[in-house]
Specification:
With 75 residues, this protein is an alpha+beta fold. The protein has 4 helices and 3 strands. It has a 3-stranded mixed sheet. The longest helix is centred in the last third of the chain and has 9 residues.
């Protein structure tokens, strides 16, 4: 784990790009750890299947009427 000061971190944003995937960067302030930055892999592409799984009613049964449910909450 590489350690940098908060000043170095804010003035040199390339430090984040230089972190190998899965490694961490410890940012300190006055010698005390403040936060840890880690680099994850590439962002997943939004596919139709992923969008449906993340949708609000993606896991609801086929016969469920979400509009009627929302109207019942207004009453």
């Amino acid at each position: 784990m590489r350690t940098v000061t908060s000043r170095q971190f804010y003035h040199n944003t390339k430090l984040v790009e230089e972190i190998p995937e899965g490694e961490e960067l410890l940012v300190t302030s006055n010698g005390k750890p403040k936060f840890i930055v880690s680099r994850c892999g590439s962002r997943p592409r939004m596919t139709r299947e992923l969008a449906q799984s993340l949708a609000v009613d993606g896991g609801t049964p086929a016969g469920f009427d979400s509009v009627a449910f929302l109207r019942s909450l207004k009453k």
